[in-house]
């Protein structure tokens, strides 16, 4: 387990005009195109690999292949970005950068992937964003469209992929104007973790099946995916057919699980979002974890949300009900009331994230869970502009000047927690992922990660915050993630 971190307050995203090419010709650089302006991001990614000692003997030569230890010639690689949502009219450029992977980090990573896999290999990038995300716009807003255009002009098979199998269009008021079900039987793999699901620990709460929920989806469908002893997830086969999956998340907070980063990013592999258990209906007294017991009066609003999303798109007055529901939730949010499992007491969402991490780790190309890893997993975190506060959708931008690479997603996420000033043992998905299970992604007694920070070997526990103070926690997590003192 190795983690490499570069922090530099002067690290900024370059302009997309030069397709995020480097501004200097490194010996291993495989193309004939250089940027006319400085590109510190490309150099930063290169430094991550160098200080980790990857292919040390050949560094600074044309043969340097830092990812060759993980990626073989001809391997199929999927780069799992964080393209959560397009830029809205009220979003600043930095607000967009705080929530979505930037194209400059993607470009530098893919260049080194192609060095390892070969220029004729297939590399795909993307994820399954929120169902109302406008895909072409999020590619444009992040600069990922320029990355795709560059490789297309060079004849390389580097292709963006929207992994959603169900897409909607929604107005700013909240009215759903259209929906599209992408019927492709070859794209979806349904995987049932059964009693091995982390969610199965919640079976029998108050003598009945948990009432699992995910916002903006029919609760009946979500409950059908998760019952006692059966927990089904719909994973896109682009992921299962890959030899290597590289997570490329943001460094940002998350209101349901504490942090986003790599583990939570596996939600981006899911084709149908209604199979995701984000919380359980009601407060803890009633067997739920949607909001604290002190806010039990929110039950009516939650029941209304369920009722609206259970109705078909063409139901009478449905557009008005969509608008009423969306704006009611906006009002509750402005009143600083907890909803949708957005607090530290959410005991559901982290379990779903661990389930998905195990599926990506252990499910074979047919979608059958195996006792051994089925593909390589790597991670590169984009924290140049990070996100604090109300992540993952509306984080406050924070110039953190940070990049992190790891060959172990859990170890990388733990170091990311430290860089945010958080205690990783307060993040349930990182604390509980070491629990021995049939399909585990890490052993409970594994050794501590080797961490290199700006060229120095350090202990994980000594990693300081990237910005000199802890990140601001999501409202429902106030004073929970930051260690005392």
Briefly characterize the structure.
The chain is built from 13 helices and 18 strands. With 485 residues, it is of the alpha/beta class. It has a domain at 2-184 and 242-275 and 357-477.
Oligomer: single chain
Shape: globular
Q: Could you list the spans in which at least 5 consecutive residues all have pLDDT below 50? A: none
Note the beta-strand portion: 15-25%
Task: Explain what you see.
Helices cover 26% and strands 20% of the residues. With 485 residues, it is α/β, with parallel strands linked by helices. The protein has a domain at 2-184 and 242-275 and 357-477. Strands 1, 2, 3, 4, 11, 12, 13, 15, 16, 17 and 18 form an 11-stranded mixed β-sheet that branches. The radius of gyration is 22 Å and the shape is globular. The two termini are 29 Å apart.
Protein traits:
11-stranded mixed β-sheet, 3-stranded antiparallel β-sheet, globular, alpha/beta, 13 helices, about 475 residues, about 20% strand
């Amino acid at each position: 387990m190795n983690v490499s971190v570069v922090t530099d307050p002067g690290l900024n995203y370059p302009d997309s005009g030069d397709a995020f090419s480097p501004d200097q010709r490194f010996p291993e650089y495989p193309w004939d195109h250089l940027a006319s302006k400085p590109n510190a991001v490309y150099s930063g990614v290169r430094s991550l690999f160098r200080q980790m000692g990857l292919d040390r003997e050949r560094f600074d030569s044309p043969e340097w292949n830092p990812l060759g230890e993980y990626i073989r010639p001809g391997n199929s690689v999927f780069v799992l970005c964080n393209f959560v949502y397009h830029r809205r009219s009220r979003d600043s450029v930095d607000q967009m950068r705080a929530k979505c992977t930037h194209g400059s980090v993607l470009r530098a990573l893919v260049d080194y992937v192609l060095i390892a896999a070969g220029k004729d290999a297939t590399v795909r990038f993307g994820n399954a964003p929120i169902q109302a995300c406008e895909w072409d716009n999020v590619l444009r807003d992040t600069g990922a469209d320029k990355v795709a255009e560059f490789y297309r002009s060079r004849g390389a098979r580097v292709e963006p992929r929207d992994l959603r199998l169900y897409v909607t269009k929604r107005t700013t008021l909240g009215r759903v104007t259209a929906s599209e079900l992408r019927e492709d039987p070859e794209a979806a793999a349904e995987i049932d973790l059964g009693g091995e699901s982390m969610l199965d620990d919640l079976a029998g709460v108050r003598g009945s099946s948990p009432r699992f929920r995910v916002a903006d989806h029919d609760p009946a469908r979500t409950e059908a995916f998760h019952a006692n002893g059966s927990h089904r997830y719909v994973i896109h086969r682009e992921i299962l057919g890959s030899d290597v999956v590289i997570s490329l998340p943001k460094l940002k907070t998350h209101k349901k699980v504490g942090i986003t980063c790599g583990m939570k990013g596996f939600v981006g592999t899911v084709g149908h979002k209604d199979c995701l258990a984000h919380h359980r209906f009601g407060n803890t007294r009633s067997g739920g974890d949607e909001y604290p017991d002190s806010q039990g009066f929110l039950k009516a609003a939650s029941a209304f949300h369920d009722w609206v999303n259970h109705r078909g798109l063409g139901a009478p007055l449905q557009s008005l009900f969509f608008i009423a529901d969306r704006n009611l939730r906006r009002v509750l949010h402005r009143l600083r009331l907890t909803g949708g499992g957005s607090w530290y007491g959410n005991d559901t969402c982290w379990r779903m994230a661990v389930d998905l991490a195990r599926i990506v780790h252990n499910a074979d190309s047919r979608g059958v869970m195996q006792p051994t890893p089925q593909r390589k997993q790597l991670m590169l975190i984009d924290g140049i502009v990070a996100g604090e506060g109300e992540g993952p959708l509306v984080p406050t931008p924070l110039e953190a000047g940070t990049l992190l690479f790891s060959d172990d997603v859990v170890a990388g996420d733990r170091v990311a927690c430290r860089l945010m000033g958080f205690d990783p043992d307060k993040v349930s998905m990182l604390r509980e992922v070491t629990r021995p299970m049939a399909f585990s992604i890490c052993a409970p007694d594994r050794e501590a990660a080797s961490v290199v920070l700006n060229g120095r070997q350090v202990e994980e526990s000594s990693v300081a915050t990237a910005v000199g103070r802890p990140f601001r926690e999501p409202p429902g997590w106030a004073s929970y993630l930051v260690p005392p003192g």
